[in-house]
């Protein structure tokens, strides 16, 4: 499997995991669990902001973020829509990215003003793992509020998107 193929699969998984999490997060009562829901949305907004900052770095575009979260907290619905659009951007970006560009270094400025340089492949790996780390934190918030989070694991995505992977290997005998 090539790095490009793996990255594309990881970002499709990321989009699936985000969609599953947003669906289940709607079950967290906004009145009874106001603080937990707010913390979950702030955490997911942080993921989104970091995703968009690095998307700007990858595309060579400026961004308007001065921190890794926003002062305003979006609604769950607004954030879900924005995250879905961002996830689609990454899947499309990776699907069109020539493999030889994965090792190309991108220089950028972090929101704290520090200089940074990473390869495109490293940026994409960071975005994928950063999101997973924080989705896990949101899952913990949901568990403590007695709302089971979805199974956010790569194998669950692979088996759901490609159910034939769950079938036992069949040995085909030739005559």
Question: Gist?
Answer:
This protein has five helices and two strands.
Description:
The chain is mainly alpha-helical and 175 residues long. It contains five helices and two strands. It has a single domain, classed as Up-down Bundle (Four Helix Bundle (Hemerythrin (Met), subunit A)), CATH 1.20.120.450. Helix 1 packs parallel to helix 4, helix 2 packs parallel to helix 3 and helix 2 packs antiparallel against helix 4. The model has no long low-confidence stretch (mean pLDDT 93).
Structural key phrases:
175 residues; mainly alpha; 5 helices; Four Helix Bundle (Hemerythrin (Met), subunit A); 59% helix; flat; two-stranded antiparallel sheet; single chain
CATH homology-level superfamily: dinb family like domain
| CATH architecture assignment | Up-down Bundle
> In whole angstroms, how far apart are the ends?
31 Å
Using only C-alpha atoms, the radius of gyration works out to 18 Å
Beta content comes to 5-15%
- Give the fraction of residues assigned to helices: 55-70%
Mean pLDDT: 93
Quick one: biggest sheet?
Answer: 2 strands, antiparallel
Class by alpha and beta content = mainly alpha
Q: What's the number of structural domains? A: 1
Could you give the count of β-strands?
Answer: 2
Name of the CATH class: Mainly Alpha
Could you spell the SSE succession in H and E letters? HHHEEHH
Low-confidence stretches: none
Based on Cα principal axes, name the global outline.
flat
């Amino acid at each position: 499997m090539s790095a490009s193929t793996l990255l594309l699969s990881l970002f499709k998984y990321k989009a699936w995991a985000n969609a599953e999490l947003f669906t289940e997060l709607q079950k967290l009562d906004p009145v009874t669990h106001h603080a937990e829901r707010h913390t979950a949305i702030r955490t997911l907004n942080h993921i989104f902001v970091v995703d968009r900052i690095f998307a700007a770095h990858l595309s060579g575009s400026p961004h308007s973020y001065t921190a890794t979260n926003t002062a305003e907290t979006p609604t769950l619905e607004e954030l879900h829509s924005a995250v879905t659009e961002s996830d689609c951007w990454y899947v499309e970006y990776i699907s069109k990215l020539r493999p030889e560009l994965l090792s190309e270094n991108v220089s950028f400025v972090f929101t704290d003003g520090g200089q940074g340089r990473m390869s495109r492949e490293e940026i994409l790996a960071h975005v994928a793992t950063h999101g997973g780390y924080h989705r896990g934190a949101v899952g913990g918030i949901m568990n403590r509020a007695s709302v089971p989070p979805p199974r956010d694991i790569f194998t669950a995505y692979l088996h759901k998107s490609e159910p034939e992977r769950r079938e036992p290997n069949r040995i085909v005998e030739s005559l």
